[in-house]
Write a structure and sequence with these properties.
five-stranded mixed β-sheet, globular
Length: 148
């Protein structure tokens, strides 16, 4: 990854699971600007479905912003495995969503998907739950640790 890399953190939630879904995340532009999103989804589903929708939402938005290099963080080990090359064994019920997310790879010169533990994905987690606006890191802070 280079100085032109966008860094994004995403999360999806379903309460109860399955239940009402929300997605959230934050993207950090190479210039340090941050772009959070938090959105309730119109239908009922499971947390794995919400995670995939969050990835699709974030990657589509990043493409619209002209991002060519992206480091995408998720606390879903299932999503990370499904986005890997080669992808993990398909999950039949969610195969179309994961295929849609993988297809977005073609729009980037470089896309790396990394699993992070939930405690290092706190901003995206709060946004996915619809919590009040979480404290968003200053441009020069490390968003993975919330520390300068």
């Amino acid at each position: 990854m280079s100085s032109a890399t966008w860094i994004a953190y995403i999360d999806g939630s379903a309460l109860p699971n399955p239940g009402r879904m929300r997605i959230g995340g934050i993207a950090y532009a190479p210039d340090g600007a941050s772009y959070p999103f938090s959105q309730a989804l119109a239908h009922i589903g499971c947390n794995n479905e919400a995670e995939a929708v969050a990835a699709i939402h974030a990657l589509t938005w990043l493409q619209s912003m002209g991002a060519r290099e992206v480091l995408l963080h998720t606390d879903s080990s299932i999503l990370a495995a499904q986005m890997a090359e080669p992808a993990a064994k398909p999950i039949a019920r969610l195969a179309a969503l994961y295929e849609q997310a993988r297809a977005l790879r073609a729009g980037f010169a470089q896309l790396e998907v990394r699993w992070v533990p939930r405690h290092k994905n706190t901003v995206a987690d709060a946004l996915a739950r619809g919590d009040a606006e979480p404290a968003i890191d200053a441009p020069h802070q490390d968003p993975a640790t919330n520390m300068a």
